[in-house]
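Technical appendix A lists one of the benchmark inputs used to test multi-chain prediction within the project. The record comprises two sequence entries:
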Amino acid sequence: MRLHEVGYRYSRRGAWVLRGVNVGIEPGDIVVTRGGNGAGKSTLLALFAGVLRPVVGEVYDQPARIGWVPERFPTEQPFTVAGYLSTMARLRGVGQAAVERWLSRLSLAPLRNERLSALSKGTAQKVGLAQALLVPPDLLLLDEPWEGLDIDTRELVPDIIDEVLDAGGAVLVSDHSGDTGHLPGVIEWAVVDGVVSVVRPGKRSQDKREAEA
Amino acid sequence: MIPLIKMRLLGYLRSGRFILPLIAALVVLSASYGGGRSSAASAYGTSALLLFPILAWQTKLLLDTEPDGQRRLVLTALGSRSREVTAGLLAAVLAAVPLILIALVLPWIFDAVTTNDAGAGVLLGLWVHAIVTPAAIGIGAWSSRVISGSAGRATAVLTTTLVLAFVIGLRGSPVPWLAPPLVSTARTLDGTATAAAVGGLSVWALAWAAVAVAGYGWLRRSRA
């Protein structure tokens, strides 16, 4: 998937949040975007998710299955954890088995009948993670995925990223914490004043092949 | 798309937002039917006119129930903006059905109709509510948060559009076709509704609704 000369602003008279963005992500890539608050990282992820459309520029080769974990999961919904994930699974065309798998894996099973509005921030983030993984994504977008998560789940996220990459998917992470820095082959983008630049090129699949050799 | 329609209807019901439009419909229709007896055509012409703003308001409430973040997650899950938009509009159509049924039944409960042929009267009622509902849903969709932004602007869009829909449609208006045929339909049903008049009003109402809904769909291309 590639953004070509993409610019985005939220209103006609508003300031440009992103300008002249020329970046791409390929299967097997893991990319981490860094930047200060309000730099435009979440906007960049929303453009990759297809949720926002560029005001100028083009988006090419958007993958079919995108899993997006927003920075804040919307809990103001009158559904239980299991009811919500079941509906999202039906929207994605998968059955209850996928829901049960992620309820169990993210330790959400005891909270299956809890209302979304009653969840803590960390638990809500787990539900956000689960809904993005109900189908193996071609592109997984993680917006500050470690925010509020407990230790066990924080340790699980790199494993999940690895599984997506091994299955031929790509992962784009917005990360303040630096937890993704140790992953092999991480490509690093910096978002500064609306401009995205490649700070550290890399290729996980290539690195992995070299490591195995 | 069906799971999404169901999700949005369930969210609307469980949030309790349906109560206010329901109460408003019961109050205005009861007041209308409590005033005296008339033909079924006249009664239903009036009820469609009264229900129109309530259906528009209900559409706005329904579409606004889902948080913006969830609407965006739905978009990534479906991978199709048109299906997401269509599901919202279809949910609004289904939410309108109970209010329309109430409007169809109430005049008989209040013994407010003089017509002997109940079947023909109810059919006429079904027709008039069916032609005004899509236009009401179109106006409601335009005033929803994803299009109008702030609550103040959304309320202004809803009230202004509704007032204009009535005012522009009044007798003597130079541009009555700019509004959905609310007043014209009520006026026609108050007199003699010929097949030609029914056909003409149907085409007018549905064409107006098609333009409103298409405009909403066009705006939604860049708004999630």
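The CA atoms of residues 164 and 179 of chain B lie 7 Å apart. Residues 2-220 of chain B form one domain. Comparable benchmark entries are summarised in Table A2.
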